[in-house]
Amino acid sequence: MVQLQSFVFSPLQENTYVLYDETGEAVIIDPGCYEPHEKEALTGFIGQNELKPVKLLNTHAHIDHVLGNAFVKRTYGIELYLHPSDLPVLKSNQILAPHYGFRAYEEAEVDHWLEAGQIIDFGKAQLEVRFVPGHAPGHVAFVNHADRFVIGGDVLFRGSVGRTDFPLSDHNTLMNSIRTQLYTLPDDYTVYAGHMDPTTIGREKKTNPFVRM
Predict the structure, then answer these.
(1) Per-domain boundaries in the chain
(2) Which end of the chain is more exposed for a tag (fewer CB within 10 A), N or C?
(3) Quick one: average pLDDT of 53-69?
(4) Where is the Metallo-beta-lactamase domain (predicted)?
(5) What is the separation, in whole angstroms, between the first and last Cα of the chain?
(6) Is 0.85 topped by the overall pTM?
């Protein structure tokens, strides 16, 4: 069974996730840690639970989701996975980061490209990669079917959806991604988003004011 620990990092209130199972192997998803105390919170949890991080995954490359990429790669000697369509977003952060107040931001090199349908393994667990562009051109979600949850990044929120007023964003593409890639999952799947509290597929299909089914 996969265990999940979330952290809320930076003034942008981004959700970082650590997933692990009984083997102790773990993946770190969207590390938004920037300040020293945030990095200590992440490493402290991993150390206290004697976890072994084996992969670093990004749902997408907006600045709040990648602030800790370089730190995590350096600390644990693990490799970064990102969808190739989000490389322009990642590269833009060198210019954008200071405007958000992140003057010490370090860009991390991507080691592996994600693709739709790919299976990410760690320990005894698996994550299915689903391509869900719209908020960002290379956005993906990670689905764990065994424990019935989704790490959805900034696609679908509790009562909301991801912004599409950024460069390379597109509202119609986002709506299509939600309908075809997330709303096709069973209603009881929990959605752990990049911001705010978790929700479920069924709740959003019934009540989300932006996209109902």
Answers:
(1) 3-207
(2) N
(3) 98
(4) 13-195
(5) 30
(6) yes
